């Protein structure tokens, strides 16, 4: 490793540890992450090896910076009631993709490869830690969701909803690398991490949204792996997807009922999945009438989505510019009263920042995934990145997704891994 980037490399690892570790996520002040980012920035500016350059390839950086600046301006003019300090403290999260771009433009392949190895270790240790916690104390993942959680719940490394999202998107990163790496030991370790991440998402800290997104992710991944090599026409794929969608509607209810029976025999978070499946069955059978549903978690989530959509479509000013960001309590009544449900990244963006925010969000997501696809010349990998993009978009409609741990895996770790797979010259990866 070059001495000119050694300190910047170290601070990058510090940012990763703070961002992806649930313990630090809950217990360390956001100002610590901000300070770490400022140190990283100063180390990058002071290094002759670090390049700051915006080109057509990394134009996504302007959209991420622009959205952050737009949020800040909305607080300055009073459109958003939240403090400008809140936006400043949040800035390192929105700069994660930008840091990734700077690193890929500045580090050599060996340095990027070493960084990816350390990132895998950091994420893997957190996944292993959560699996162990889930075995020893499975109920902790339920109490983490309660407003009146105890100090003991804060002082654990058990991950909540955002960490489930991290594991969800860590799986395709492992799949990318495992398919292309030659070393048998590394392939085995990646397989173990895939299994542990699956176990965490499906059993230990089971969430309905993550379960369905995981199913779609794996189906899409293996479909692309099987079909892309055959050079099918677009018409073939369109027909195949339509037929598959029709079949899915026919087997949806029986499949959900079958899954409900399986999960009903489980304990802890997995047992709650049975209720989620039954709620979806009720919603489908009643033709989308939510009044016929039980007032459970899924019912409340739909109401919160509706709150944001209603705000967005309520009048022309709200449609164009939203109502801004506000600080309020996180209970359901306060969220609905405020008009922003707080349970969907995209719906909440539309409610808070209107059409302007929607345009920013669209350009941010589409441009960075375009950048990621261009990191590889392999058609299968590019197709699988598209699958990740589709899953991320759907996930963002149903959950908050612009969180430090998830972004670090999707828009930092994944692009670096794709770059190493494409550019490694040590024959560690299969060509």
Automatic annotation (TrEMBL):
Keywords: Membrane, Transmembrane, Transmembrane helix. The chain crosses the membrane at residues 7-25, 31-47, 59-80, 86-107, 114-135, 155-177, 184-202, 208-224, 236-259, 353-372, 379-397, 403-421. Residues 193-361 form the O-antigen ligase-related domain. It is a multi-pass membrane protein. Pfam families: Wzy_C. Signal peptide: none annotated. InterPro entries: O-antigen_ligase-rel_domated, WaaL-like. One of its GO terms (cellular component) is membrane. It is found in: Membrane. Its main location: membrane. PANTHER family: O-ANTIGEN LIGASE (PTHR37422:SF17), TEICHURONIC ACID BIOSYNTHESIS PROTEIN TUAE (PTHR37422). This is O-antigen ligase-related domain-containing protein. It comes from Bacteroides oleiciplenus.
